[in-house]
Amino acid sequence: MKRLVPLLITAIGGFVLIISFFIPAWQESGEVVAVWFDILASIAFILGGGNLLAVHLKKISDRVAGWGYSGVTLLAFLVTLVIGLLKVGTAPAPQTEFFGETFAPLPVAALPEFSVPGSIPVREEGGRVPASVRATDPPQLSEASGRLIFRGWMTAAQKADLLGYQETLTWRSQVEELAELARPPAELRGKVQFYPEHGVLSFRGVMSGADREQLEELFASQPAGLEAVADLYRRSQSVTELSGVSPPPGFQIPDAASGFVELNAGTLAVRGPMSEGLRRQLAVDWLHPDRVRPMTDEQRAARRRELEALGPPLTDEQVQVLATEFDGIWIPEMLIQALNTAGLAAVETKTYRELLAERDAGERNLVATKPKGEDVQLNADQEAAVQRYAAEPAMTAAELEAALQQAGPWLPSQSAALSNFLNEQPTVAELDRKIAFKLLRLHRKSPSNPPPTSAQLDALLAETRLRAAWGWQVDELFRRSHQTKFPWSGDYSSPGSPFDWIFRSIFQPVTATMFAMLAFYVASAAFRAFRAKNVEAVLLLGTAFLILLMQTFVGVLLTEHLPDWLSALKADNLKRYLTIIFVTAGSRAIMIGIALGVVATSLKILLGVDRSYLGSGDE
Amino acid sequence: MLEQLAQLDRRWVFLAMGLAIGVPVLLQLEFPEAPGSQARAVFEEIEKLKPGDRVLLAWDFDPATEAELGPMATAFARHCCEKRVQMFFITLLPVGPQMIEKTIENVVRADFPQLVYGEDYVNLGFKSGYEAVIKVIVTNLRGLYTTDARGTNLDLIPMCQAVQNLQQMHLIVNVSGSYPGTKEWVQYAATPYQKQLRMVAGCTGVQTPEMYPYIPQQLRGLLGAIKGASEYETLVVERYLGESPDPKYLEARRRMGPQLVAHLLMIGLIIAGNVVYFLQRRAARA
User: What ipTM was assigned to the predicted interfaces of this complex?
Assistant: First the structure.
């Protein structure tokens, strides 16, 4: 019995795999067997680990020769296993942490229901509704009494999935209508959300009393919902403090954050979890940093003089570095182009319900887009305002926008484009930092260029250093205020984790060294053992010479001057003949031989003739 | 003298090999590279791809063979990024995820920050089971892969939603240093589904001869060792990277310098060994 069961498993698995290869109808069975093989293989890993422990512990216990190596092996095995399994020192995966949000578990059944007339269509090609709306228990999407029902608030991804489920106008109109209904109340939109894959209710930022009341009203008949709201309120009110902070001169808490961020006597405190947006506001945006503007020749020369006043005159290559960076700054024509592009009338698409209404009204040629409006392009006065902004450092972005609005027609999309364009430009501090590092790199690459002096570096990097120091403190508060959602979600080998350190600092160099040592042993063997003792050995030697030469530039160098009538002897051709004719033929012969052997051996195993793989046979 | 040579301490050979590799590395010796037919075949197969085509990048190598295969993996990834294809990274080796991560970090995130995870590239990670994994996913991807390496459900990853099996890939690119590797991908994916699947590969020098019989039907092109990587790298650099590419895209060519000197040393050692052998034999006859 001990041998019969494995024998049957082997035979059945083997024959199913063979049949599934030739008969498509058996394909699924072949997959099942292969998956089972995978499961059994993972169990084999456990057995292998146990065996490793047993063998090496015995060696250590018996103090056999080389037992110290067994100790090292066991130590390495156990350390790696523990660190990997327990994910020691691994940070949670960022995409599962939802920074700035607070979570509370909530069963999907507690969520409000929304419905529209309709039903879930059956697709001709089969297939269930998208996983994103059916993975919960009960599923978020269902149908009853001629109505399409959605439980909870539909996310953009769920809506996209449902729209893609079927292409009919009727279905898409229903989904569109349902998506519009299945949303939180207007006041809570953007704050509250339900994540079906995690089964949690989420609240972004600090929950106010009014928010809480609205949520409690929403879950009035659901104790689980009320409990989740109370939990969220409590968590979102928690205060995190960081003492001993030293903000940069002139630091002010942004108005938008003044309700939940405080700075008192060197202690920075935040209520609720800090979002990434708030972190950016506190660390960078509060300063309203100057963005780079186009520079005139005089401004460029002045900048160069400033640097030269703090060190030796700049070399030609250093001047070129400066010029390259200044040339990369935007020019007024780019901003004008961006504003004109934003002024092009957008093509507005009709909703599916509008299209359905048109179809029901008898329209046969449905057009998905609405008639295009008029384009708004900058006039001469507006272009002049842009030129003025580029030339006058004292003019602010707000003043530019006001001037543009006064000078001619102006669209909100252009206002957004203006803001985006200016905010995408690097700050003056970033440009200075780039110049500093480029000058340092230039010195490293060509030492004839002197490195920037300390004074020059101080001037170029002063603001960057200031911001970095403050940024680290804000980052620390961000980290402390975060409420970890899934502590084990991180990858055990993520960069910076102890496992990653073991891999990079020990495993990688050790395995690379082991492989590299082959070169030394092969060289030694080439000198000692590679002898032309007979004709076969001479052929082997000749081939080895050719391959060794052809794998390098020497082969090309030695044969490139051969005349055309001897082109067959050129390196590339010789290599091709060798590989296509001799190597391929030899490999095929070996491969066919092996394949025949594999067939014979496999049949013997599958039919139970060869049972050596089952062990000694002692029952 | 003859006796001394015959009894030469092997440590002198080791020293010579160390110098043959170390000196060119320090001197940064580089030589021009003329792409051969196989490198061109591989390059053209990727060139044929259209933006949005699906490419499976199977990174079946580990740190031991990274010196030989890392540069070609980098060049493959760069080429695929340039072609704007959808990249599906996968590995059958336990230490393969680190190799994938390195490629993504050095090429995709560093030089193509606009590419979005889940839309332009995805890391399916490692799955144990060797060729059994290939056997299953070539007909049913979700039979073994329900999530990507980050644990996200494949149904929630836009570029994976429509992928049911590997036959929907427009190309398989395999970089292989051991078992399982190119041979298994050819046997279990490219051969049974020759009409649907195209495949190119890059192997270590030791594996390369075993793969020649598969060319060109099952394997459209093959990069053999650092030489093949260097030729392919040259093609990618010439087409896409211009005059002064980032040094990471010239890594294979940089490694050809030490290889040239090491090969010459090997030839010298074989000749020297045989001279000693024949002189000893003649002396013995006399």
Answer: 0.86
